[in-house]
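Before relying on records like the one below, remember that each one covers exactly one chain. Contacts with other chains, cofactors or solvent are not represented anywhere in the record.
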Amino acid sequence: MANPRALIVDDEPDLCELLSLTLARMDVDSRAVHDLAAARRELQEPRRYDLCLTDLRLPDGDGLELLEWIQRHAPELPVAVITAHGHVEAAVRALQLGAFDFVSKPLDVPVLRRLVGQALRLTGARQAADPGQRLLGESAPMQELRAMIARVARSQAPVHICGESGTGKELVARLIHESGPRKDAPFVPVNCGAIPTELFESELFGHRKGSFTGAVADKPGLVQAAEGGTLFFDEVADLPFTMQVKLLRLIQDRTVRPIGEQREQPVDLRILSATHRDLGELVAEGRFREDLYYRINVIELKVPALRHRLEDIPLLAHAIIARLAARMNITLPALGAEALRLLSSYRYPGNVRELENVLERSLTLCDGNRIEADDIELRTGAAPPRRDWWRPAGGDGAARAAGEYRATGDPAGP
């Protein structure tokens, strides 16, 4: 079987040699070119490449131009951007444009090897994952959401998932993880609203024996449990303010220091987050750090409310009833036409979670083997939220994603 191939785009001969030697030790063939024009010509040749490593600064342009060109002509090719040390904003911009990841100069060879390994696992991950099997719905917003999941799964950029309660934000996070190169590593969810403030640092980063009263043994934290995989902060708006700066450091430096430990430890993981609240409003109110907001919100996915895709109700209802009947070990009941019409006309403030509750109640209370309209109990006077802060914001291109999702702006803030 042929070795994977990588294209190196950089005008520094010493760096090209280091990259080529590192790749060769990983059984990856490589070819180096030194400017933007040569890279474009090379990528138009019939030969196949599995990875592109490009510097941001090139003699006839920059790596972002090449990245945009690859997104148009070879979107399946993972691109890693090489940045000067400390150029965080340029790296974030590259991630927003679709880069797989970035690596800073001077190159850390173990970090580079890990990045290359993850990029080369992308093909298998794309073939194994099928978001359509669990993220049900044929409406335009859901088709675009699945397309966006496939796109962001190729990247290592932090993704923030927002939408109302009950829309399936954790499911979206799991699908991003399972569609990417980290799918065989742990997916660790952190419910930010369920951990007491005084225990948060220990739960997240771990502690050493004797570091505080009651610390009778070393304890690894959730960060260490997610090593190599994905750490998902659910309801990140509830993260204690004192912990927000520590999370910012984790994202920026990719290091962690357990309580009672003197040295920081490097970690390799991807950060995903979600909330049903408007983080922008919380930033304006001084209740959420602005710098953290722009770090976790490099790419934003907005999950549509159920009332904005009511055409998906029949498919969702039949799938939920089949799952509930199998769990309850009963014969699969039919869903009457009038009952389906009633379900399809409701607004669902609780979204898919509320639909599941309504159907479970109906399945329990119905007589015979058919759910009729009289078996459907819906909340009277239920209304959607006072305003849809997550409604379409305009824009164009893939970041617009059918008007339901868009990438954030300049990470330096408005």
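DSSP finds 16 helices and 18 strands in the chain.
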